[in-house]
Amino acid sequence: MSHHSSLFDSYSTRRQRPPKNKIGTGAKHDSAISHVMGTATYVDDMLKPQSTLHLAIGKSAHAHARVLSMDLSAVRAADGVIDVITFKDLPAKTDIGAVFDGDPLMVDEITEYVGQTLFAVVATSHRAAKKAVLNAILEYEPLPAILTVEEALKQQHFVRPSHFMERGDAQAELAAAPTRVAGHIHMLGQEHFYLEGQVSYVVPCDDGGLEVYTSSQHPSEVQQLVAEVVDLPFHAVTTVVRRMGGGFGGKETQAAAWACLCGIVAKRQNVPVSMRLDRQDDMVVTGKRHEFSNRYDVGVNDEGQVLGVDMQLSGLCGYSPDLSDAIVDRAMFHCDNAYYYPAAQIAGHRCKTHTVSNTAYRGFGGPQGLLTAEYMMDHIAYTLGKDPLQVRLANLYQNGQSTHYGQPIEHFDLATIMQTLADDNEYDKRRQQITAANKKAEAEGGDKRLGLALTPVKFGISFTVQTLNQAGALVLIYTDGTIQVNHGGTEMGQGLYIKIAQIVANEFDVDLDTVKATATRTDKVPNTSPTAASSGTDMNGKAAQNACITIKDRLVEFAAEHFEVAAEDIKFECNHVHIGDKEVLTFADFILLAYQHRISLSSTGYYKTPKIFYDRSKAWGRPFFYFALGAACSEVEIDTLTGEYKVLRCDILHDVGQSINPAIDIGQIEGAFVQGMGWLTAEELIWDKKGNLASNSAANYKIPTAHDLPKRWSVKLFDRKNEEQTIYNSKAVGEPPFMLAASVWCAINNAVASLGDYKKNPDLTMPATPEAVLKAVMRMQGQAWEIASKAEAETIASLTPDNDDCGIDDDRVKPQQVPHGKDVNPPESEGQLFDEQPEAIENPNVSTARGPAHSE
C-alpha cells in the first residue's frame, strides 16, 4: 500500500526546494477559496434533519418594568408551534453571567432592557416561530429607567465597584503646574455588525449528552453554560466551532444564551434544535462597545510635558456586569496610551443603565482610554500653540520608566516608529503646506480646510485576568506523513488557523499543505480560553509548538537508537529527515518507520504566558507580557459648510514583531483601521428616551464601505523581532491596529482647529459624523448650533403625537409633506426607461433563483 498522497508534489521535487509557505510567507487564508466561492459552511448552512425545531424569542418592550402578566395562549395555538418556554420552565441554572451573576437566561419578573428575553417559541420553522411570537399579550408596570452615564453617576448606580489607580501626588502637581487644562470627551458605542449573526444548533446524542454547534469565540464557556442550564456534567456536552463569520468580541460571552436555549429545548424534545437571530433582533438584543464619558484635568510645563493628571473614565455597562469590570480596567490601563504620567490619579466607574449589557469589542476598552489621551494631547497642543506631534513626542515613554500601574517600559521603539513615519511622509513639509492652504482658504472665503495628524498606539497584550493566559493543542501525525492540528483558538476570519498550521509545518520543515487545522472542539482540547485579547496566535501557537517538540523529541530518540547515530545529527529538512551520513528518508517514510516501531505520533501541547501578574487591591503589577506598537499619519479635508469630510491619505507603520504571515497581518491592520475609522467617524448608535435602539438595522446604522477608504493608503510592517519569547518572536495583531484610526479623528479635529488659528481645542464628539463636524465648526466660529428663531408651537404640536416622550429629535421641527407632491405627474421624457416585460411582474421566472431555506 502506498503512503504517498497524489495531492502533493513528488518527494523528488520537494527535496529540491524549500518547504512551501512556512512562517514568514504570505500564505493565503486556509478558507480563502471557500469564502470567495460561498462554499464555506457556517452553522446555519449545516444540513439539518427534517425533525429539526426552530426557536424565536419574545422580547421585552420596556427598558425597566415589572411583567404583570403574559398571555401566551395564542402563541401556543399558532401554526407550527410545538412548545413555548418561560422562566418557570428552565430546568436548572437560570443565570448565565460570564464572570458575575446578573444575566438571567429569561425574565422572571423584572425586565431591565428593551429586548430582554421573556419567552421562547419552539416551532417547525424559523418563520413560524417568528410569526407566533407576535401573538403574545403582555402587561407591564413601567418602572423608572436610567439610560445615560450621567444619570448613573448621579445616582451612583454601578454594576461593579469603582476601581482606582494612583501614582504620586497628582493634585499637588496639578496645583503647581504652570499650565492646567481640563476637558471632557464623550464617545459612543459601536455595533459589532459581524456578517454572520448569532446562531446555534444543538443535537441530542444517544448517550444523553448534547453536541453544540455555535458561532462563539469561547467554546468552553458555551459548553459549561449549556451543561449547567440543562443539568449535565461538562463532559456530556461537546461544543464545536469550525468558523465564525466575524466576531470582534460580540461572540465572546453573548453567543452563549442562544446555545443554552437550544440545549434546553433539545433536551426537552429530544430532537435537534436550531436558532438564529435576524439582523434587527441581533442589533437590539446583543451588547455593543461600551459608551464612555471621560474627564481629565492635566497639568503641564511650558514644553507641554505632563506633570500630573487626574482622569475619570465612566463606562456605560448596561444592566449587568458581563465583562465590564475587565473592560473598564483595560480602559484605565490604556488611558496613558504611549505617554508618561509622572503623577496620576485614575478612576474607573462601571455605570449600570437599563439598556442591553455591553460587552467585549475589539480593543476591549483600550480604545476608549487611548482616545482620551489623544484628545488630551490635542488640547495641550492647541492651548500652548504647538504642533500636536511635538507634544506627543515630548510625552512619549522612555525605556526604564513605568506606567501608572507599575509595568516597566522595555524595548520601547515608538519614538523610532513615529519619527520614521514622519520622515517618510514628509510630515513637517506637509504641515507647513496645510497651514498655508488653510490660511489661503480663509483669506479667499473658501469652504474647505485640511487637517493632519500623526498618532501612536501602545497596546498591552495578555488577558488582564491571569487565569485566561493559557492554551492547549493536540497534534496528530498520520502514517502518510500528513499532520492534523487542533487547538483552543477559534477562527473568525482573522487567519488564526493558517498561522497555527504554518507553525506546525515550520517545526517539522514540511510543506504547509501537509498540515490541516481542524474545527475547535471541547472534546479534543478542554478548558479553552476565549479567542480574544489579541492572544490567539501567541498562546495557541506556542501550545502547538510545544506538542510538535514533544513528538520530535520522541522521533529523534527513536532514530538515534535505531540508526545508531547521535541525536544532534538528526535533522528535519525540506520534507525529509537526514539521519547523520547514514540515511535520508522522506518525512512520510520516516513516520511510517516510527509507527512500525511503535513510536507515539501524537501529543498534547500546553502554554501559559510568563511574567504577568496584577494585584488589583494595590492597582499595581505587570498585567501585560509586552506592548504592541504602531503609528498612523492621516490627512483629511472637511467642508465647513456641510461638515462632510474626506480621508485624503493615510500611512501606517505597525509593529508585528517577526511576522508569521505578513499578508494576514497586513489584512488585519487594514481591517482594524477601517473598523476603528467607522467607530470614530460614522457609526452612530442612537437610543430614544424610552431605551429603544433607533439605529437598529443596516438602513439606519452606517458602517464604513470601500468608498470611505483613504484615497492614498500605505501599510508597512516595522521589521524588528519581539524581544520577548513569543512564538517565533512575533507580536499580536488583532486589536492594536484598531486604534490607529485615532489619526483620522485627530486630523478632523486639526482641520476644525484651523478655524481658530490652532489656539483652541475644538468641541468635537465621537463619532465625528458630518453633523458633529459642522457643530464643532460653528462653535469654533462663535455661532450657535441651536436654532435661534422661535419655533412654531402649533406646527410642532401637529407633527408630534400626544404624550410622546420617546422621540429622538423633539427639539427640531420635523419635515412636513410637500403640499403639491402627490399631485405632480411628470410628463414622459425622451430616454425614460419603461418595463418591456410587464407580465414578468405577475408571473416572475424564479427557476434559477435560490429557493427558501429548508427551515422555512
Q: Which shape, going by the Cα principal axes? A: globular
| Count of DSSP strands | 29
Helix content: 25-40%
Number of helices: 22
Mean of all residue-level pLDDT scores = 92
- Gyration radius, rounded: 29 Å
Strands side by side in the biggest sheet: 3-5-1-12-9-10-11-20
Question: What characterizes the major β-sheet?
Answer: 8 strands, mixed
Catalogue the unreliable spans.
Answer: 809-842, 844-856
Strand content: 15-25%
Structural class: alpha+beta
Ends: how far apart?
A: 48 Å
Pfam families: Ald_Xan_dh_C, MoCoBD_1, MoCoBD_2
Keywords: Molybdenum, Oxidoreductase
Region (Disordered): 1-28, 799-856
Domain Aldehyde oxidase/xanthine dehydrogenase a/b hammerhead: 37-144
How is this structure best described in words?
This protein has 22 helices and 29 strands. The protein is an alpha+beta fold. The longest helix has 28 residues, at 536-563. The strands form 7 sheets. The protein has an 8-stranded mixed sheet, with helices on both faces. A 5-stranded mixed sheet has the order 7-15-14-13-8, sandwiched between helices. A 4-stranded mixed sheet has the order 16-27-28-29, sandwiched between helices. The radius of gyration is 29 Å and the shape is globular. The model is unreliable at 809-842 and 844-856 (pLDDT under 50). The protein is 28% helix and 23% strand. GO terms for molecular function: xanthine dehydrogenase activity. It is an enzyme of class 1 (oxidoreductase). Residues 1-28, 799-856 are annotated as: Disordered. Residues 1-13 have a biased composition (Polar residues).
